[in-house]
Amino acid sequence: MQPIRLTFLGTSASVPTKERGLPAVHISYNGYSILFDCGEGTQRQLTLAGISPTSIDAIFITHLHGDHVFGLPGIINTMLLNNRRKPLYIFLPPTALRRVRWLVHAIPLFPLFPIAWIPVREGTIFEGREFHIEAVRLDHTTETFGYIFREKDRRKLLKDKLEKVGVNDWRIYRRLKAGETVTWNGIELSPEEYTTLVKGRSIGYFVDTAPTYIPPVDYLIHDSAFGEGEREKAEEVKHSTARQAAEVAKKIGAKKLFLYHISPRYRDPTPLLEEAKEVFPYVEVAEDLMTVEL
Amino acid sequence: MQPIRLTFLGTSASVPTKERGLPAVHISYNGYSILFDCGEGTQRQLTLAGISPTSIDAIFITHLHGDHVFGLPGIINTMLLNNRRKPLYIFLPPTALRRVRWLVHAIPLFPLFPIAWIPVREGTIFEGREFHIEAVRLDHTTETFGYIFREKDRRKLLKDKLEKVGVNDWRIYRRLKAGETVTWNGIELSPEEYTTLVKGRSIGYFVDTAPTYIPPVDYLIHDSAFGEGEREKAEEVKHSTARQAAEVAKKIGAKKLFLYHISPRYRDPTPLLEEAKEVFPYVEVAEDLMTVEL
Asked: Do the interacting molecules here have an ipTM over 0.95?
């Protein structure tokens, strides 16, 4: 099974602190290199995490607030200086497109590799061979999308069983893996009998948002800007409390919740963690440069 | 004597490394808070150095290359979130003005405090009570200015001498300090006799540039992007080698040279330091978050 490596690059909200940079999360999977958001300083955080900024294939921007996008001109400038040739795909809310392009092109970039600017709608927006990315509309003060990295389900061959009936042909393997029923030497080989279904893993990135409907995911990265003491403030500015994030995680049956997008007022995030744990036990506070292998 | 605190925030060139952020230097003096350049990540480096990003009074931009300006939108966003009211003065080359404004205003900033955009010409461009800032045209691939922080010379009263003749009046003190000759009880008090001249300290920030004419300064922060092995490259892209920076320091009789704007190719800057030391002994490699009290 290919590992999915999830790296938190910046975990603060609005303003960076000594401990936390601005929002960005990296996913590395089977040669793909993907960013969710690109706050100021993202290229340096990537370097500190040992990930080449130039490797990024696609960037998924949640919304048009500075702390989520001000890292774009710098990382693109670095890609250019590193002689990047491959295109960069930037997905973003339709209402953010024009201004984020201004931001990136304010200072002339030359010679520029191709940049594809892709306005996002709800549903599957990026289809890879082994995974896809879904966009989900969130509830914030401006048009905002959350993103899901969803590995496709796959069929694993039951090699022992297949050897018993004498099958040893990769073409038959391939068809079984694709879910086809194959007739071979008069025997009917069904995928249900000769393979097992391995469920794909999924990661959801949901910032900035008040609690809202989101589809089930295994690993949930959720806005936890505030503690319960600031619940009114959270409602007013359309963010979530850590406890509310935990309620979402419980409702969708997540395997793990990462408290993310922590307001600078919580230098010690322990109270947030405790409030979340009352609702949902499998929870951790995301920290800068924390890497999780799934 | 008021201390001048000089803090190197980012000391890399073009691209940040694990050890070095993008160009920015901070000067703190008698309540003034000043930045030279504002590369991506400057607001976080300020926070790490214990300096409030919101405190900055004026930013002096050398030229329109991304690594020197991409920190502006983020620091201004943070000032806004911190309810800044006082105006921010941004000095920059005339040819950079339009595009840097685009960069800052690409994403709506609201409610914004006043920003004064001031195109720079050679000479004194900012006059404080105890210091001024001079701009010097440099030799780079685009219109570039270097900046000098120059403390004014001041007269220090020779209190013992004044007491001997019986003067103890702050109005006379003030006039002597201002360089006036004062007649008191029939005695002529000349500033030459009753004060000493204390020369003001000066700091020069000269990046990005090939070696060029610059006026004398005490503390010289000079482009040292390359070593002698890359001298041709340095000439081609209009930067300086560490040795060339040392030659400038020697020529102008600087007290101290800081090698600055170090290319990411020199993870270990020792060779640059050694090449510079052959020419000029009072030299140090600037490091991120290094603070010097003058």
From this structure: no
